[in-house]
Automatic annotation (TrEMBL):
<keyword id="KW-0238">DNA-binding</keyword>
<dbReference type="GO" id="GO:0006275">
    <property type="term" value="P:regulation of DNA replication"/>
</dbReference>
<comment type="subunit">
    <text>Oligomerizes as a right-handed, spiral filament on DNA at oriC.</text>
</comment>
<dbReference type="InterPro" id="IPR013159">
    <property type="entry name" value="DnaA_C"/>
</dbReference>
<dbReference type="GO" id="GO:0006270">
    <property type="term" value="P:DNA replication initiation"/>
</dbReference>
<keyword id="KW-0963">Cytoplasm</keyword>
<comment type="function">
    <text>Plays an essential role in the initiation and regulation of chromosomal replication. ATP-DnaA binds to the origin of replication (oriC) to initiate formation of the DNA replication initiation complex once per cell cycle. Binds the DnaA box (a 9 base pair repeat at the origin) and separates the double-stranded (ds)DNA. Forms a right-handed helical filament on oriC DNA; dsDNA binds to the exterior of the filament while single-stranded (ss)DNA is stabiized in the filament's interior.</text>
</comment>
<feature type="domain" description="Chromosomal replication initiator DnaA C-terminal">
    <location>
        <begin position="361"/>
        <end position="430"/>
    </location>
</feature>
<feature type="binding site">
    <location>
        <position position="158"/>
    </location>
    <ligand>
        <name>ATP</name>
    </ligand>
</feature>
<dbReference type="GO" id="GO:0008289">
    <property type="term" value="F:lipid binding"/>
</dbReference>
<dbReference type="InterPro" id="IPR027417">
    <property type="entry name" value="P-loop_NTPase"/>
</dbReference>
<keyword id="KW-0067">ATP-binding</keyword>
<dbReference type="InterPro" id="IPR001957">
    <property type="entry name" value="Chromosome_initiator_DnaA"/>
</dbReference>
<feature type="domain" description="AAA+ ATPase">
    <location>
        <begin position="145"/>
        <end position="275"/>
    </location>
</feature>
<dbReference type="InterPro" id="IPR038454">
    <property type="entry name" value="DnaA_N_sf"/>
</dbReference>
<feature type="binding site">
    <location>
        <position position="156"/>
    </location>
    <ligand>
        <name>ATP</name>
    </ligand>
</feature>
<dbReference type="GO" id="GO:0005524">
    <property type="term" value="F:ATP binding"/>
</dbReference>
Length: 453
């Protein structure tokens, strides 16, 4: 590609991404030239600027550049000489004061990284300490000791946060590494696009040239055969080269349905760590950290004693909901110009608090199921395998899986220390029976309704 071609392309980019984005992000960058291996080099005002353009517009740029043939395979952003910089480089959004400016000069286009999701802002507690320690280890970028790192846990428990934190940390400390973060959905999208455009070689080369690959929400590729196939090959090629892979999912590898066995076993072959549901201390820690940032944003706003503790007690669904509640509370209090009292909190967050009230616990499910089948709770949980106890036990396990965010191992623990495979078997059995046995189907439905009421 030549400078003239780049000039011609700029007008088109403005149409594609909108004039404002174009003026802010594309106009200030300068095509520097080509490097061997199909690398198009651009001068950018700052490292962060390059990273932002790469993460947000890299795909579009590559697609447009491919109009000039297969010559451009990768993008490289380098900080221009001071003389070349525009007088005022725009600040990328979103950023946080503590966001480390990534130093990477050679970045592969992936999904945008959230500037707030760093290790600094990640609060560590019992439920996530192992996942955090593993993420930290990987972020050191040293010798690959476990591959892949598989992080899993329920909604909003910090999987994406940890992955972004690894990416930020690596881009700061190991700018020589090519780090690629994307969701499994984006992986599929790119794969399909490459197929359509007959650019599979480029696709393969791109993915095989990364040093660290992070794929978020891998459960998405379950049931999508050709994407799984390609993912498997990418995975193997990188592992063979001893390149680090980090995967996240909303459940453990053996709980992801419609995943090929060879992929499942590959995913299990490294370190599998579970982000447990939050406990009170972790929730309080997260709220206290958030409060610090709100104090800066709303310096005059007062918050009453015990409010954070109240929220940490009452909102135990997930961290996203917890953060959202605090955000709403501060916004509301500042709008009405009142201090945050208990009364205002209950008023402002009535819906969130009500929703949390309805949270169903394993204890409650066990109690209701035992009542329903007229058996003792100790028999429901205990070791006896007679049918009269085993079937209700399976129903209870099934309901725990459906109605709570608990993982299979945890459910197993709460049923007299049973193994998670026993729980999985029980859940499957009830799933099957529901379509064959109307009595079971009715029981399950009745119990579900009464628990959710
Ligand atoms: N330990 C933590 N410390 C600080 N913030 C946290 C922590 N855990 C989660 N969060 C925050 O909670 C929100 C949700 O986290 P995140 O998006 O990482 O969840 P997730 O596990 O990827 O969920 P999903 O399955 O919905 O994608 C984010 O704003 C994140 O910063």
């Amino acid at each position: 590609m030549t400078k003239d071609q780049w000039g011609a392309l700029q007008g088109e980019l403005s149409d594609t991404i909108g004039e404002n984005n174009y003026k802010t992000w594309i106009e200030p960058i300068d095509f520097h030239g080509m490097e061997p291996g199909g690398v198009a080099v651009f001068n950018v005002p700052t490292n962060f600027f390059g990273s932002y353009v790469s993460q947000n517009y890299g795909d579009i740029l590559l697609a447009k550049l491919s109009l000039f043939g297969n010559e451009v395979r990768r993008l490289k952003f380098q900080v221009a000489n001071v003389d070349n910089r525009p007088a005022q480089a725009p600040r990328p959004q979103p950023t946080a004061a503590s966001t480390p400016a990534p130093q990477q000069a050679d970045v592969l286009p992936g999904a945008p990284l959230d500037g707030r999701f760093t290790f600094d802002s990640f609060i560590v507690g019992k439920p996530n300490e192992l996942a955090h320690a593993a993420a930290r280890r990987v972020a050191e970028g040293g010798v690959v000791t476990f591959n892949p790192l598989f992080l899993y846990g329920g909604v909003g428990l910090g999987k994406t946060h940890l992955m972004h934190a690894i990416a930020w940390e690596l881009s700061r400390s190991r700018p020589d590494l090519n780090v690629l973060y994307l969701s499994a959905e984006q992986f599929m999208y790119r794969f399909v696009q490459a197929l359509r455009e007959r650019r599979m070689m480029d696709f393969k080369e791109l993915f095989r040239s990364v040093d660290v690959l992070m794929v978020d929400d891998v459960q998405f590729i379950a049931g999508k055969d050709s994407t799984q196939e390609e993912f498997f090959h990418t995975f193997n090629a990188l592992v063979d080269q001893n390149k680090q892979i980090i995967i996240s999912a909303d459940r453990a590898p053996d709980e992801i349905k419609d995943l090929e066995n060879r992929i499942r076993s590959r995913l299990q072959s490294g370190l599998v760590v579970d982000l447990h549901p939050t406990d009170y201390e972790l929730r309080l820690g997260i709220l206290q950290a958030k409060l610090q940032t709100y104090r800066e944003q709303y310096p005059t706003l007062e918050i009453g004693e015990g409010i954070l503790e109240f929220l940490a007690h009452r909102i135990s669904t997930n961290v996203r909901v917890l953060e959202g509640a605090l955000t709403r509370l501060f916004a509301f209090a500042s709008l009405v110009g009142q201090p945050i009292t208990m009364e205002l909190t209950q008023d402002c967050l009535a819906d969130v608090l009500r929703a949390s009230d309805r949270k169903i616990s394993i204890d409650e499910i066990q109690r209701r199921v035992a009542e329903h089948y007229h058996i003792r709770l100790s028999d429901l949980i205990g070791p006896k395998r007679v049918r009269n106890f085993a079937r209700p036990r399976q129903v209870a396990m099934y309901l725990c899986k459906q109605l709570t965010a608990r993982s299979l191992p945890e459910i197993g623990r709460r049923f007299g220390g049973r193994d998670h495979t026993t729980v999985m078997h029980g859940v499957k059995r009830i799933e099957e029976l529901r379509s064959q046995d109307s009595q079971i189907a009715d029981d399950v439905e009745l119990l579900r309704r009464s628990l959710e009421a």
